[in-house]
Structure formats: structure tokens, C-alpha cells
Write a structure and sequence with these properties.
0% strand; mainly alpha; single chain; 71 residues
């Protein structure tokens, strides 16, 4: 499990290095793909937060940023 989290952290860091080249929408989409795929891999019955589709890009980015701070 630690390796999976390490890979997620690595891919998120790579994404952060290219932030200047991406729009907020692209950044959120990339981070979401990485985080959600990792969670589904680790917990097969895992589901995205129920309110995820109703959040603004800024709110999604804020949540993803907080997640990066704790991993």
C-alpha cells in the first residue's frame, strides 16, 4: 500500500511541476484522475465524494491541495 501512495505522490508532484502550463481545469482534472484512480485501486468499493460534481473548480483544487499536504 505504501508503494501505491508513493506513486500517487510522485505523479502529483510531476503534475505540480507543470502547473504553469496548465489551466485550473486541466490541473484539477489531472489531480482528480490520479487521486481517484489510486483510491479505487486501494479500496475497490471507494466512491468519489457525493458532492464532487457540484463543487467549483476552485473548491476541488482546494480539497486536492489539502490532500497533497497530508500525504
Amino acid at each position: 500500500m505504501a508503494n501505491t501512495m508513493d506513486f500517487m505522490k510522485m505523479f502529483l508532484t510531476i503534475g505540480d511541476l507543470t502547473d504553469g502550463e496548465r489551466t485550473l481545469e486541466e490541473k484539477v482534472a489531472y489531480d482528480t484522475r490520479i487521486v481517484f484512480a489510486t483510491m479505487r485501486n486501494m479500496i475497490p468499493d471507494w466512491e468519489a465524494p457525493r458532492d464532487w460534481d457540484q463543487l467549483t473548480l476552485e473548491q476541488k483544487d482546494e480539497r486536492l491541495t489539502k490532500l497533497k499536504e497530508v500525504i
